Amino acid sequence: MTTSQHCFDDTERATIYRAIALRRDMRHFTPSPPLPDDQLERLLQAAHAAPSVGLMQPWRFMRLSTPPWRERLIGIVEAERQRTADALGARGAEFLRLKVEGLRDCAELLGVVLAPDDGTVFGRLSQPREMAWCSAACAVQNLWLAARAENLGLGWVSMFDPAQLACALALPEGAEPLGLLCLGPVPRFYDQPMLEETGWRHARPLSEMLMAPPAP
Amino acid sequence: MTTSQHCFDDTERATIYRAIALRRDMRHFTPSPPLPDDQLERLLQAAHAAPSVGLMQPWRFMRLSTPPWRERLIGIVEAERQRTADALGARGAEFLRLKVEGLRDCAELLGVVLAPDDGTVFGRLSQPREMAWCSAACAVQNLWLAARAENLGLGWVSMFDPAQLACALALPEGAEPLGLLCLGPVPRFYDQPMLEETGWRHARPLSEMLMAPPAP
User: Fold this and answer.
1) Using a CB-CB distance cutoff of 8 angstroms, which residues of chain A are in contact with residue B161?
2) Cα separation of A162 and A114, whole Å?
């Protein structure tokens, strides 16, 4: 590989920042045929290029795009949506008016699964579960940005009972469902996160994310 | 914003995939002055553009680049490195020969902290801790790719006792340390993950990450 391939110039840097800025958690999809196999493989290879603690690569992917799978998963998500509304109390009715998933219309529906713990110690002696989850989340974020680069939307649905979903997916002992990913063409990308556009919640500025360290 | 700004063309798409493919977890850094403030802010804004469950934005950042902080943190990481070697048993000596962090030489040293739980229910009724960690990890992955776009290396150090680090950083009740991020110029980016280059472990192909679903 040449030096120029290793270096990113100003134009390329701006492109990467643009993908990061324009990526959205999507719930509105354009009904579409399944993605071409080569495109789906590019996207999954991007996910698989993620870092992982101790190189454990704990992410697993399951393609669940058939109509019977969608119906089954919609049922699981809908039950959790109702439980969420109950838990939200005063804002439950407002919550139920929000669109929280695109399972029916997305071109592809993927399950992301955390593999059973493989016993990796490197870098996860003290926080083994947390580091496995973080590694898998990095893979999803790669997939999200790759999808944006393909002008495709992705929505991470985490609204499900994990035990129920693990059972439905017949996951092996120790594996855990991380998310259902809705993936495919969208009518438009939200200008702001959908929860902001709908007035559900406001994002905070970076300045509020910075903590001053104490004296060392 | 115009349509062309919303769409990525083939060249731009290839650039984004290239950043994903060339990003590495770095441990070797070129001793350098602190990053310019505007560059560090661009990088943190990229992290802050990450998705988060229920828009909870649980990530917090602490700049710990001063020499006294480095010395203190090196001590904390070194203690965990020794404990890790003990836990690795037969491979402990081999492990101790690996370079596992770049805390001394990196231009900037950042602490990433998970904020105390803010009670967000949306999307995290059943897996509240996991979803907070995943959201914060997505922010780190954005930062990683933005750093790569800036031709800077980043290494996520997770080798520490979280209680000891939380105490050193004087974190508020309920906050948890996620990682120490080494950030800055590097002599070269590894061609393969360093744990592969050193023969510690081999990465597996994407084909082994795909799970066939059961009958729906």
Assistant:
1) 126
2) 11
Contact B12, A145 (CB under 8 A): no
Q: At what angle do helices A128-149 and A10-22 cross, to 10 degrees?
A: 110
Read off the pTM.
Answer: 0.98
> Which residue range(s) make up the domain with B172?
25-187
Distance in Å, alpha carbon of A85 to nearest chain B alpha carbon: 9
**Chain centroid, CA A214 distance in Å:** 34
**ipTM of model over 0.95:** yes
Distance CA B139, CA A201 (A): 19
Distance from CA of B197 to the nearest CA of A (A): 12
Asked if the structure places residue B32 within a domain, the reply is yes
| B186-208 pLDDT, tens digit each | 999 999 999 999 999 999 999 99
> Any bridge partners for residue B90, and if so which?
none
Per the structure block, which two tokens stand in for B150?
């800036």
Cβ atoms of A157 and A179 closer than 8 Å: yes
Rounded mean pLDDT, B63-70: 98
d(CA B59, CA B51): 11
Domain of A122: which CATH number? 3.40.109.10
Nearest to B127 by CA among A140, A93, A130: A130
